[in-house]
Amino acid sequence: MSKYRNLFCSALVFGFISSGTAIAQVQNQTQTTLPHVAVLATGGTIAGTGASETQTTGYKSGVLTADVLLKSVPSLGKVARVSGEQVSNVGSENITNEILLKLAKRVNTLLAQPDIAGVVITHGTDTLEETAYFLNLVVKSDKPVVVTGSMRPSTAISADGPSNILQAVTVAASPTARGRGVLIVLNDRIGSARYTTKTNANTLDTFKSSDDGFIGTLIDQVPHFETAVAKLQTTQTPFDVSKLDSLPEVDIVYGHQNDGGYMYDAAVAHGARGIVVAGVGAGSESLLTLPSIKKAVDKGVVVVRSSRTGSGYVPEDSAYIGLLGDNLNPQKARVLLMLALTVTNDPARVQEMFQQF
Ligand code: ASP
């Protein structure tokens, strides 16, 4: 009897061990069949820490590293195989052209690897849209690239970083996100880098897709895309960062009442090759600034008119000087003008690019 009991026990133990091994094998298979998403961390509030769970201003940006960020979201393991890399660890007000180029080159290298399904960039929200639009113009792949951030530091109550990382990785791992250009994903929304902008200095729902709306939403962690962007992006642009070690200087001059020309003179004296006018209304320029803007253009500086209102198009108007910035806000117009000037100095060709991209 005891012999049979022993046999029964060994069968049971063997059964447990073999089914345990089988479960582990299935888990490993699931793990290895999941898409590989590379996460590049650059800093910002998403990697920030505060002194208490109620501190949501005055905290320190760019403290946590990529590995710590990824470990804070255990459910990532169900969505993708993720690997983390640190590109920088700064508040996004300190993202320089050098960091932009380093990031873009790394994104292109990763996307060229067959095993990489998509890339996520964690970033400070203040200039997130500039990096996203830059990548939208220079990434040479149809694979998803998603930029995310958070409004609350990691230590805050209801910190939005972990959920935004999970959503960004989910979108980057999704084949439905391919060919849509660089995406900005925060707060359940999927926006195109071309149109999405930070609109509020403090609130969680700060990112809005002005005029043209978000292109998708995440429901129960499933991305739903509704629209596509008609402007050309990624593989459809002529910009090649692999050949670039620096970007031309482009400055933004902000329009206001009693505006003088000296900010334009200073930009030209500093060596600007391009100037974006953040004009009032639909890109209007004050009479007091026109002589300086004309001097800049005569020296070969490419001037582009945009609007400081935050949305809307800049129309042709012979009263003012400069190319038309389409409906790009001043900071995104600067990104496109920098890249345009890496390819051409011809104002007609630059104007064409403002219509295309
Ligand atoms: N100052 C921070 C940054 O842009 C703000 C944020 O991430 O929300 O890096």
Automatic annotation (TrEMBL):
Extract the PROSITE patterns matched here: ASN_GLN_ASE_1, ASN_GLN_ASE_2, ASN_GLN_ASE_3
Keyword Ion transport set for record: no
| Alphabetized CDD domains for the sequence | L-asparaginase_II
Q: What is its EC number?
A: 3.5.1.1
Q: Name one GO molecular function term.
A: asparaginase activity
InterPro entries for the chain: AsnASE_II (IPR004550), Asp/glu_Ase-like_sf (IPR036152), Asparaginase/glutaminase-like (IPR006034), Asparaginase/glutaminase_AS1 (IPR020827), Asparaginase/glutaminase_AS2 (IPR027475), Asparaginase_C (IPR040919), L-asparaginase_C (IPR027473), L-asparaginase_N (IPR027474)
**Catalytic residues of the enzyme:** T45, T125
Q: Which residues form the L-asparaginase N-terminal domain?
A: 36-225
Q: Does the keyword Hydrolase apply?
A: yes
* Residue ranges of every copy of the Asparaginase/glutaminase C-terminal domain listed in the record: 250-354
List where this protein forms a coiled coil. Answer: none
**Extent of the signal sequence:** 1-24
Keyword vocabulary terms for this entry: Hydrolase, Signal
Q: Which PANTHER family match?
A: 60 KDA LYSOPHOSPHOLIPASE, L-ASPARAGINASE
| Family the entry assigns | Belongs to the asparaginase 1 family.
Q: Which named protein is this?
A: Type II asparaginase
Naturally occurring in which organism (per UniProt): Paraburkholderia dipogonis
Classification lineage: Bacteria, Pseudomonadati, Pseudomonadota, Betaproteobacteria, Burkholderiales
